[in-house]
Amino acid sequence: MSGFRIDVADLLARAGARRDVVVAEPIEGLRSTAAAVTGPVTVAAHLERIPEGIVVRADVEATWSGECSYCLGEVGETVHLHADELFEAAPVEGETYPIEGQVIDLEQLVRDTVLLELPLAPHCAEPCRAEADPGATEEAPTDTPSDPRWAALSELEIR
User: Fold this and answer.
1) What are the sequence ranges of the domains in the chain?
2) For 115-149, how does the pLDDT look when each residue is reduced to its tens digit (9 = 90+)?
3) pTM (2 decimals)?
């Protein structure tokens, strides 16, 4: 059984029952187009039985890495996220998560929460842009263009 699959038989047996769980597991394929989660994802969740099902209040921590869209160097960050979601026996598509027998699976909740926070174009702190593009600073030489493909443009007069 995956670490994100939680047996909730004890919660389903008693109305108002509560339990805290902490899970730290890697999730394969958790990535956007430009950033990927590296290492385990940690979930600290509070589970509470209500008449409709089980409410999960989770704090999620994940570390992502990617390539800076300015300088192409390695960049990464740890994100701390919060999710409040309902798990029920008859889930509403796109709104709630399923209870499968007496088990809830937090993996899809974690995927949905983390993927929304991964950057589409990750970048370093602002100084890397000037280092990557010498033409962006005022001290850059004006007599030669930085890219030879644009050399013809330097011959144009600006009025």
Assistant:
1) 5-128
2) 998 888 888 876 675 454 555 444 444 555 467 77
3) 0.72
Residues 6+ apart with CB under 8 A from 39: 26, 63
Nearest to 106 by CA among 50, 49, 46: 46
Q: How far apart are CA 54 and CA 46, in angstroms?
A: 10
Q: Which residue is it, tokens 């990617």? A: 66
In whole angstroms, what is the distance from residue 21 CA to residue 87 CA? 15
